[in-house]
Design a protein that fits this description.
Oligomer: single chain
Structural class: alpha+beta
Number of domains: 2
Helix content: 25-40%
Largest sheet: 7 strands, antiparallel
Shape: elongated
Distance between the termini: 55 Å
Radius of gyration: 33 Å
Strand order of the largest sheet: 15-10-9-8-7-17-16
Strand content: 15-25%
Amino acid sequence: MSEQSNLPATHGAHDNHGGEVDYATRDERGRYILPLEEHTPRITDIDPRAAKRAERQVAWLFTLGGACLAGGVAAYVAFDSRELISVPTIGRVSASNFWLGTLIGLGSFFIGAAAIHWARRLMPGEEAVDHRHPLRGDEQSRASAIEQFKRGAAESGFLSRPLVRRTMLGAMALFPLPLVVLLGDLGPSPKEKLRHTMWGDKRMTRIVNQGSGELVRPEDMAVGGLINAIPEGLERIQEETGTQNERAKSSIILVRMNPSEIKAQQGEGWDYEGILAYSKICTHVGCPISLYQQRTHALLCPCHQSTFDLSDAGRVVFGPAARHMPQLRLGVDAEGYLVALGDFAEPVGPSFWERG
């Protein structure tokens, strides 16, 4: 191990433990030299059999690390994403995610342990002092640095211990494999999936109060009120697909204000008697929103404080969001229930790089 020293020429310096250091000598520039402890040889320095045993231990740790990483990928492919297992203290979790995370963690641990064991048992363990010097040295210093690098590489055993070298390279080659698999599982571009929601499945889709589960009538809403809502039939879709993807896209908020207070909408006559419907998903990074200020008609995102004016077509008035909140056209059906008259005119959720 190498230390750099540039100690001031003053008395009364202290070591890392708070004790006073007794400097014995100075170098040619008058700087005090920190005395180093006498090097005690390790058993691997004097016993070739111990060194060989440590080499095999390092190789086994690298091998275990690579095997765990490969096993994580295999488990991710083998288990269905909807298959659940019970884990103590955690509960019911996805078997695929559990084994992938566990084996990646173990693989990273074994590779790290192998590197530490290699450094502590087989690499040179002597301490040395190297004084600081200007950033760019002269040609002689640079040649000396290159020579030291080559000597260090030789002393590390990377070239002379092929078992360690090969197992390390194998483990490190497998290390990025789980990450590649995870990236590939991100699926296709979200552009088309976010462009279509359940609100566009029918010409008129009834609106359900998310809290009570009841269909919404216009008279259920008072001026200044807000209702979190979902499309009728959403629960059935969730049961069929086993996911909440459609809920994430189709959740909306309903607000009611005096029609005279509506400054602008995203289409002609998109409110119904002052009732407006907007996506519940912030256009910044997709946080759900329902913090509504009645007096200013401002909708505030709790994540990054993006603020939208719902009386002015959901326009952004503050914060990092770059797009207004998507709006639904509203009406009532023959039975007097509030309905959406089609899908959003644009993709819901956060902006992404493919969107023009």
